[in-house]
Write a structure and sequence with these properties.
By secondary structure, this protein is an alpha+beta fold. The protein is built from 3 helices and 3 strands, in the order H-H-H-E-E-E.
Amino acid sequence: MTTENLKQQEIAEKKKIAEARKEYQQEIAEAMKAYQKYVICIDKTPDEFESSLSSLLVKAIKAYDSRGPNLRHGIALDRHITIILSQNDSPRPLCGMYFNLHSPYQKQATAKSSKSQKESIGGSQAKGEG
């Protein structure tokens, strides 16, 4: 891909983001207000969060516009937020923005070690080894 093509793609992407931000400015404003008031996020500053919202909104619009004939939603998400556009009776889809509950301090679930057990053919279990 040439440098000129990359520049054109970048310009087109910025235009899509600006259009999405304009169309869904009320939803973005409400999400930003909630983020700044209620969400503690070590990974993203409010500016980074707003940038992520815009990018995810464009992805959700693309998913919504390219959905199959029997599908009603376009969804985009990252670790912190999920955006869902849902078909309704008006030309503009409903927009839901949801905060994904996540803690960087949450431990990964580890598989519990189990003792091997012998089972007889009759279905009764023998005592575990170990």
